[in-house]
TrEMBL record:
Residues 17-118 form the STAS domain. Signal peptide: none annotated. It comes from Streptomyces qaidamensis. InterPro entries: Anti-sigma_ant, STAS_dom, STAS_dom_sf. This is Anti-sigma factor antagonist.
Amino acid sequence: MPLAQNPLSVEVELPREDVALITVDGYLDVDTATEFQAHLANQLHHGRRHFLLDLSSVPFMDSSGMNIILRVYQEARKTEGSVHVISPAPAVRRILDLTGVSITVPISESVEEALTRVDEGPQQPGEPEGLNV
């Protein structure tokens, strides 16, 4: 689909000095992935170590979006940082689960939950996620 029909909106907030909350709205696909990547690269350049990716308003994501999430995850881990996906739309959650990305990149239901996970420190790949009780 042409970019004009499915523009991507990306908003960046800084809940803390080293944490970037990236709220994405629109299709995250081959036509829009470069814009998403530019925002993440800018935040890495400015020293952000933790990335909270709110994908609740992303109805569709293809492998381009998924690859960018995995790349920022790898970059964040180099600085002992983290990446957390927040409240992905059902179709996006399914893609993350089917591809195994959700095993590597934690999924949180809220910004507060993701910030708590940031405070708890890095989770080792394959380690079960903590239960919220």
